[in-house]
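Onboarding guide, step 5: your first structure request.
Type a short instruction followed by the sequence, for example:

Predict the 3D structure of this protein.
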Amino acid sequence: MRAVVQRVSSAGVSVDNHTLGEIKRGVVVFLGVAKGDTEQDAEYLSDKIINLRIFEDPDGKMNLSLIDISGDMLVVSQFTLLADCRKGRRPSFIDAAGFEEADELYEYFVKRVRKGVEKVATGRFRAMMEVDLVNNGPVTIIIDSIKKQVVSEYEQKK
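The system replies with structure tokens like these:
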């Protein structure tokens, strides 16, 4: 599983000019589900993101989490995060999970973050969405789930 987390002042997502969700201060999470991802990946990412200290404390240091500031979250599914662009000029999405598997894990991730975040808005799975956001900082962080980190570290040692 891969997440792109952006700290925002505000954000919203719409489909066919109909707003599905809006948030104020918090984070937008673009979430990609890979083949073989499990609930453990979703648990790791949800816990990591809601506790990630990327908001300023009174001294201006990134020391506070989404929970600490009672921030909002917008979660948008995005299989293109799993694109492999190493060969040719057209991205390959062979590593992205199938629709059913991805939807189940996306929903599980959303369910998990709702346990710790008061306001969680979402896009619509498999829809052509328009996302508007005001990136605050800008702060953008990419996080891979445990399994992906282990594989990446292994490949680097080869």
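Each response can be followed by summary notes, for example: The CA atoms of residues 70 and 117 lie 7 Å apart.
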